[in-house]
Each structure stands twice: as structure tokens, then as C-alpha cells.
Amino acid sequence: MTTHSPRDAKGRPRVAVTGIGLVTSLGRGQDENWAALTAGRSGIHAIRRFPTDGLRTRIAGTVDFLDTDPLVAPLLSERFAAIAADEAVGQAGIGAAADFPGALFIAVPPVEMEWPQRQALAEAAASQGEIGYGDLQRAAASRAFDGWHDLFIFGTVAERIAERFGTKGSPISLSTACSSGATAIQLGVEAIRRGEMTAALCIGTDGSVNPESLIRFSLLSALSTQNDPPEGASKPFSKNRDGFVMGEGAAALVLEDEAAAKARGATILGYVLGCGEKGDGFHRTRSSPDGAPILAAIRASLEDAGLGPDAIDTVNAHGTSTPENDRMEALGLAAVFGDLIGRIPVTSNKSMIGHTLTAAGAIEAAVSLLTIRHGRIPPTINYAVPDPALPLDIVAEARDVPVARVLSNSFGFGGQNTCLVLGAEPA
């Protein structure tokens, strides 16, 4: 890398990435995931975790090679986060003996008691009489379910990960829908830029493929119902797309003030050059029809990086495979990039791993950094029927090209939009 100032054009510390960790339905660690992604292999399959008889959607990108007891979202999310963070912290060579020299920013799914636990509580209440609110309160107060108290509190995953890695200060838990993982990275970047710390551990994790979440998304008509074959269901930007496929996993990034990283002899894997965020509020699930929030988030990330659209080599799209989201993202990209749009490769990792929800922004940022390091853009599989209304250069097969800068998009329910610009070197 060339010599440059440790501060950017706005006088802020440059934020380097020194560690990456990954776990998805495709495998554990960077190597397994990168090999599968670039080979165009899908991790989406028939759900085996619970019965799906009678459900319209019976597929997901579950991480079946890991397990917990009980099999609930908080424990799965914690386990995924720990595995990803172990890899990232180990690669960075920082925080030996559970003494990470910075804060934890972790995106986790919304937490509520799941059906098996609700049933057990109801049965305990029924054994004491009729099931009313007072009966449930008495059953919960019986001390028979004490272990559930910590399990189903929103901040528990963060507290356990913070204790495991010895992060400093109060861990920050956040949930901004599908942009959560990118938001966690943004918070780490901003803290380092403000000079509050020289390192941050940023994680996005989600293990919430369960019957209730599947049914809720189905009721929103958000999920694909093309169950056979499972690996063909997620088809971002295709004309015959019909919804997203749920997935799960985690990614962790170790971010550092570049000067501090170099002072300790760390290997720099890339940089977070820019972050852009724009709230919407148009609708609980739908995007604003004028695309203004998406445009604003993309433009803000480029402005924060001090770059123009012509500096982006590829886009790691949000690309959920839903009819509306893909259309809005494509129109937003076309508006920002103008005449360049047909020449900028666009890809969506969700075609292979599904939509990992609160983990998605972090996972896709990690994949974007691997794209830069390897000079290879993973494909958007299942792109057999292009949508002529979406003027994008979709990468249907892995493409070997030099990549210096990636725009990674994350657009969440409720209009929570976050975009990241990642690079091999500072702008």
C-alpha cells in the first residue's frame, strides 16, 4: 500500500479493518465461505429444525452444523457471534487473554419468548388453574423458569460477548432491522473517528429462523414460496423473483485507528472509507416510492468517503429478491450512478445465503472486503431471467476483476437505510 496520512481529508483518523470473521449456512470461517460463495454454491435448503407441514415457505439458509440447547434465537445468535469474533480477533492479533482494547457494537435480532417456552409457561399456569394473566405471572414467579430471564433479555447476547472478549465500556446492542449489521460497523467507525477509542469490535448476528418468524414474514407476503428446488428460490433482480429466503449467521470486523494498527504491526485488510445513513418512516415494511431515502443513504456514504460514483468498482447490493426492494434499489443505483450504471458490476450474496436479517449488513461488508482482497466478485446465482426494467450489470458468474472500492448497501424495514464504502486503500 502507498504512503498516506493517517487522517482523512476531514481530519479524522482513518479506520482500518484488521480482522474478519464469518459464519453462514455455507460454512464456518472466511475460507469455507469464500470458496462456496465464489463457486456459486447455495446454503439454502429444506428446513429440518422444526416441522413445516402446511407452511407456504419451507426453506431457509439455516446453520445446521452448529446447535444449542434450547434451540432459540438468543443462544444461536450468541454462538454465531462468538465464532465470528474469535476468528476476527484472532486474525487481528489483538485483545489477548480476553482483553480487547475497545468497545463492542453488536447487532442482534429482536428478542421475545419463543413458542416452546410460551407453551411450557402456559402448561405450568394451567396446572394451577385457568390460564389468565395472573396465572402466567404466578407461574413465571415460581422460580421454575429463572434461566429464561437472562435468555430473553435484549442485551444478554452483548453482555456475554463483551465478557468473553473483554471489551471496554458498556456493550452497545442495536437492532435497526435489515441494516443492523451495517449500523454496528458505522457506530464503530464513528467512535474511532471521534477519538473515543482506537479499536472497536463490530458484529452482526442472527439466529432467528424459527416457526414464528417464518410465519410472520409469510403473512407479510415477503418470503419466496418457490420451495423446490430450495437453492433456486432466492433470485435477486430476476424478473421471476417472488420474495426473500430467511438465512442466519454472523460476521465480525475488528476496526482500528490506522495509526494505532500500524504502530503495533498489524496487517491491514482494508478500510471503511465512508458510512451513509438515512431514516425513512414512510411505512413499517415498504420503501418510500420516490426512493429518496435510498438515494440519500448511498450519496451520504460516497460523500463521507470523499468519493464520486466513478470511484466505485462494484456494488454488493442489498438485493433481497423481493419484487419491490430490488426495484427500488435498482432505481436508486441508476439515479446515483447515471450513465455509469450499466458498467458497474452488481451482486447479491443473498442469492446463496438468504437474507440474514440483523447480520446481513455485517456479513456483506465482510464479503465485500474479501472481494477486494481476492479481486473476485461472487456471483448472483439464479439470474436466469433478467428483469428488463432493472438496468444493472448483474454478476451472474464469479468475475475476476481488480476491485479497489465496494459500495455495500443495507436497506431495512421501517426505512432504516445504511450504506458502507469499503476500500483497499484510503481515498
Would you identify the CATH H-level superfamily of the largest domain?
A: Thiolase/Chalcone synthase
Distance from N terminus to C terminus (CA atoms, Å) equals 12 Å
Question: H/E order of the elements?
Answer: EEHEEHEHHHHEHEHEHEHEHEHHEEEEE
Q: Return the domain count.
A: 2
CATH hierarchy: architecture of the largest domain: 3-Layer(aba) Sandwich
Query: Low-confidence segments, ≥5 residues, pLDDT <50?
Result: none
Structural class: alpha/beta
General form:
globular
CATH topology heading of the largest domain: Peroxisomal Thiolase, Chain A, domain 1
Please summarize the sheet with the most strands.
12 strands, mixed
Question: What proportion of the residues is helical, as a percent range?
Answer: 25-40%
| Averaged pLDDT | 91
Rg result? 21 Å
EC number: 2.3.1.179
Organism: Methylobacterium symbioticum
Domain Ketosynthase family 3 (KS3): 12-424
GO molecular function: 3-oxoacyl-[acyl-carrier-protein] synthase activity
